[in-house]
Amino acid sequence: SIAILLYLARKFKTPDHWYPSDLQKRARVDEYLSWQHVNIRGKGSKLFLTKVLLPLLTGQPLSPEKLEGVTEELNVVLKQFEEKFLQDKPFIAGSEISLADLVALVELMQPVGAGYDLFEERPKLAEWRRRVEEAVGKQLFQEAHEGILNAKNL
Length: 154
Known about the structure:
Subcellular location: Cytoplasm
GO biological process, one term: glutathione metabolic process
Radius of gyration: 16 Å
Distance between the termini: 26 Å
CATH topology: Glutathione S-transferase Yfyf (Class Pi), Chain A, domain 2
Number of strands: 0
Catalytic activity: RX + glutathione = an S-substituted glutathione + a halide anion + H(+)
Protein name: glutathione transferase
Low-confidence stretches: none
Number of domains: 1
Largest sheet: none
CATH class: Mainly Alpha
GO molecular function: glutathione transferase activity
Helix content: over 70%
Oligomer: single chain
């Protein structure tokens, strides 16, 4: 949870870029972490649930109309994310990675795990993903997302 991440960052005195001491940068991180619950997490999880889990549980495929509606909801928040939070910066809080970037990318990997490549037609988002992956290390990134990326094979 977000509360646990913030607790761990404070308790273990992580490098400042994860949860910046600069109030403006911290406000950007906090703003994103508050916004993402019903936006990126809400819409990304909904797509994953409707495209992967519900058909798995019910044995029935999702109707194309339902999938289109859920996908469009996600596309709206992805556009907001790019315009409001990424803007023209390398990361959400500026020039360095933060907890906000980690949380954002983890949530966006759910739709990817459902087979929806949301980075394909969004070069700004794809470049941000590349920077986040590089900052945490590609191998660690792949290891952390192995389960969700294989979920569509269930």
